[in-house]
Amino acid sequence: MFTVIGMKAFVSKPVSGLKGVAQVPGDKSISHRALMFGAIAGGETSVTGLLQGEDVLRTAAALTAMGADITPPTDPGGIWRIKGIGEKSLRTPKENLYLGNSGTSARLLMGLVAGYPVAAVFTGDESLSRRPMGRVVKPLTQMGAKFEAEAGDKLPIRVTGSAALQPIHYRLPVASAQLKSAILLAGLHANGKTIVVEPQPTRDHTEKMLAFMGAQVASEMQEDGSCIITLEGRPQLAGRNIIVPADPSSAAFLVVAALITKESDITVRNVLINPRRTGLYDTLQEMGADIAFENRRSNGGEETADIRVRSGPLKGVIVPKGRVPSMIDEFPILAVAAAFAAGKTVMTDLAELRVKESDRLAAIAKGLTAAGVKVEMGEDSLTVHGSGGKAPQGGCTVETQLDHRIAMSFLVLGMATQQPVAIDDAETIATSFPDFAALMNSLGAQIGPKPL
Ligand code: S3P
User: Is residue 92 within 8 Å of 116, Cβ to Cβ?
Assistant: First the structure.
């Protein structure tokens, strides 16, 4: 039964097929980086297609508070212009840097601030204030930055940077693109080579964009599956025109919605298909999904395609461990797809899911169980027993715990359950996909404030 919930509650009703062509917002990871790198490059950077979600706007506000010159467009889809500081320094902000829900803002900006003689207090919302920052603090401290926290390795944290950082050779304890990027950002200001070894390859937008702006950065895959990234310090970064492709992590919600609703046929345009981001799509194809990549093209070093999806039966699979980093944000929506598959889907090596915007492993397991789906959760694993196409019960309210991807995943689930599925807080969706409900509804979904 539904519980009593407030204005932020949304509900998604079962619908028959989705139809149409859609454009989802710009890639979140690339948007953060375009603003940060543009802010410190020499000359002007223009950014087309920037994600205007709350997380990215937090990055823009923090950079502005430290002296960056960022001009948003006058119309919503327009071009952002950044006049880079070049050889000049960032300045100490007057206020704390409030980074809301955004782990990428917090961790990458720590790496950026580390290389300037400025001090800034980083704060965040309840979710971000629970997330571990020690993984970033440790290598940046070795490079010469200082960190003071009120409690353990959690925000609020005061970061004091230094104009004289040391380069390091650092093996990441976890496969994290945020951690890798924080070290590389600090490495921009160190004399000599900064070398990062990642145990498994993670998204490489930092390396690609820094190279595009003139840095010398090399990436070498090793036989054991690790990847060594080498950055020459003190490059002269030059402003560029950056076009942000659509976010494959946002497109994922439309794709799975089309797969699990009957007789759907949708196309999502111009989606980033960087192989370090498309693990979900590989997995869905192994499950038997009808997904086609059409009109492939390349822009600013990143490849895109139009993704056409038609509904059809899915079968359970075992997700290879090595694929986890390339779909790290997509496990909530994969678990929803798995609920409709024939047989079980086994997902392992998911320890990082415990420290995302929520404990995603627990949030997925709890939500699916409430909707009548059988799941088994381990310390770092999840098995979903699929219904073989039969609609799960639904009829529940899921706690989103300030996690946009949990919110959107369960609204997608409600499109194909017997009874509607509600979430207690849809506001969190604005961090990455502000028009999610309207876009879904334009394709045939019925998502809206509760009662609808
Ligand atoms: C991101 C890296 C990933 C991902 C996050 C965005 C990035 O985090 O989950 O949404 O832009 O570098 P981790 O580095 O913690 O895996």
Answer: no
Please determine, for residue 83, whether its predicted confidence score (pLDDT) is greater than 70: yes
Question: Is-contact 237 37, C-beta < 8 A?
Answer: yes
As its CATH architecture, domain 10-25+245-448 has Alpha-beta prism (3.65)
From residue 82, give the alpha-carbon distance in Å to each of 41, 44, 211, 241, 270. Answer: 9, 6, 18, 10, 24
* CB-count burial class (<10 Å; 0-12, 13-18, 19+) for 271: buried
The whole-number pLDDT of residue 7 equals: 63
Locate the domains of the chain by residue range. Answer: 10-25+245-448, 28-243
d(CA 187, CA 327): 27
Which pair of structure tokens corresponds to residue 450?
């509760």
Centre of ligand 1 to C-alpha 154, Å, is 17
For residue 125, indicate whether it is catalytic. Answer: no
Ligand 1 pocket by Cβ (under 6 Å): 29, 104, 176-179, 181, 203, 328-329, 352
> Which atom of ligand 1 lies nearest, measured to the CA of 176?
14
As a whole number of angstroms, the distance between CA 382 and CA 395 comes to: 22
Distance of alpha carbon 313 from alpha carbon 420, whole angstroms: 22
Question: What integer pLDDT is reported at residue 452 of this predicted model?
Answer: 66
Name the superfamily (CATH) of residues 28-243: Enolpyruvate transferase domain (3.65.10.10)
Q: Looking at ligand 1, which atom is closest to the CA of residue 180?
A: 14
> What pLDDT shows up at residue 106?
99
> b or e along 341-364 (b: 16 or more beta carbons within 10 Å of the residue's beta carbon)?
beebbebebbebbebbbbbbbebb
Considering the chain, what is the average pLDDT of its residues?
A: 97
User: H or E stretch including 280?
Assistant: helix 279-286
Beta-bridge partners for 55: none
Asked whether the beta carbons of 181 and 230 are under 8 A apart, the reply is: no
Percent of the chain with pLDDT over 70: 98
| Per-residue pLDDT reduced to its tens digit, 257-277 | 999 999 999 999 999 999 999
Task: Say if 10-25+245-448 and 28-243 have the same CATH topology.
Answer: yes
Predicted local confidence at residue 2, as pLDDT: 41
- Are the beta carbons of 364 and 378 closer than 8 angstroms? no
pLDDT higher than threshold 80 for residue 163: yes
What is the token pair recorded at 27?
């890639």
378 CB contacts (<8 Å, ≥6 apart)? none
Mean pLDDT within 393-419:
98
Average pLDDT of the residues in 364-391: 97
